[in-house]
Design a protein that fits this description.
Elements lengths: L2 H8 L11 H11 L3 H8 L4 H17 L6 E4 L5 H8 L5 E5 L2 H10 L2 E6 L6
Parallel strand pairs: 1-2, 2-3
Helix pairs in contact: 4-5
Length: about 120
């Protein structure tokens, strides 16, 4: 990837770091929901969900011998982490997110037992 390509691709997520309020965050992710997976996962090669899922599976294996425990995917967005967790053997997942359009994408994955909207900006 050239420096120009890298800069253009990072431009896709750049606005996420400049959000000043919960309302700004909600508006940003509601707008981004339709293209989030493509831009973050495919264009940027987002590998963190798979890395975290593998690490969590290793910890779960050492603690109780498996991945059957219940998980809450906080800030689940479109379900990218949930998919990685399922691929790592976790089958008992719930998720929550601030953005209803992101949750609609997560619902479409079929991997969560329950999904709910939650504003973690509230104290």
């Amino acid at each position: 990837m050239t420096e120009k390509d890298s800069g253009e691709k990072l431009g896709l997520i750049g606005p996420s770091y400049d959000l000043k309020s919960g309302a700004d965050t909600l508006a940003h992710y509601e707008t981004w929901a339709d293209t989030y997976d493509e831009e973050v996962n495919e264009d940027l090669g987002y590998a963190q969900p798979a890395r975290c899922a593998a690490a969590l599976a290793a910890v779960a294996q050492s603690i109780d011998g498996g991945t059957g425990g219940r998980l809450l995917d906080v800030g689940c967005g479109t379900g990218l982490s949930g998919l990685a967790l399922r691929d790592a053997g976790f089958t008992n997942q719930d998720g929550c997110d601030f953005s209803q359009p992101m949750l609609e994408r997560a619902i479409a994955t079929g991997i969560y037992q329950r999904l709910f909207e939650a504003d973690l900006n509230e104290g």
